[in-house]
Amino acid sequence: MNATTNLVSKAFREIRGGKTQSQLSMDLDLSRETVSKIENGRSKLPPDISRNLMKKYDDPRLAMAVQYEYTGTGPVLDGPNVDLHRCSVRERTIEEEEEFIEALKRTNFSKPAHALTFEEIENIKKAIEEGIEAETAKKMWLMKATEYIGMSYSDAYTEHYADLRQKGFII
Asked: What is the dihedral angle through the alpha carbons of 131, 154, 73, 10, rounded to the nearest 10 degrees?
C-alpha cells in the first residue's frame, strides 16, 4: 500500500466508523468485497463512489485524500509531528502565508523566462515551494474550520464555484 492509498483507506475506514463493512456496502450500493478492497488499499476509490461518499458524508479528509490519490497533490497532514489543534493550524497557516508572500515579492515575472538570471529562477522556485506549503496549510485550516463550526465542506466549495461562474471565471 502506498502513501496515497493509505490516506484514502484511512479516511474510508473513518467514515465507516462503527458500521460493519456489510452495512456500509449496503449504504453505498457496493459489494462488501469492494469496501474491503478499498479499506485495505487493494483497490482505488472510483471517482463516482468518491462523489457519492462526499454527498453522503461531506468529509474534508476524504476529499483531500482522494485529491492526493488521483493527482499526487494536496496531502492530508497526518504524521506523528503534526499538531492539528485548531489554534495551531490557524497560526501555522498565517506563518506559511506570510512566508509565501515574502517569497512571492522576491520573484520577477516581468522578463521572458529565457532571460531570467539563475538567482531569479531560484527565487521563483523558492516561491513555488512556499506557495505549496501555504496551500497545504490553508487546506488543513479549511478542514479544521468547517469541522469546528459545523459547516459543510462541500457546500463551501459549491458556493465558491457558483460565485466563480457568476463572475465569468468558470463555465
From this structure: 130
Domain that holds residue 59: 3-71
Q: Is residue 80 part of a domain?
A: no
Q: What is the pLDDT along the chain (171 residues), one digit of tens a residue?
A: 555 557 888 888 888 889 999 998 998 888 999 999 999 888 888 888 888 888 888 989 888 888 888 888 887 888 899 999 999 999 999 999 999 999 999 999 999 999 999 999 999 999 999 999 999 999 999 999 999 999 999 999 999 999 999 999 999
Residue 101 and residue 161 in one domain: yes
Task: Give the C-alpha distances (Å, rounded to integers) separating 91 from 27, 44, 79, 95, 98.
Answer: 39, 34, 18, 6, 11
CA 66/CA 142 separation, integer angstroms: 16
Are residue 38 and residue 102 in the same domain, yes or no? no
79 belongs to a structural domain: no
Provide Rg for the chain, Cα atoms: 19
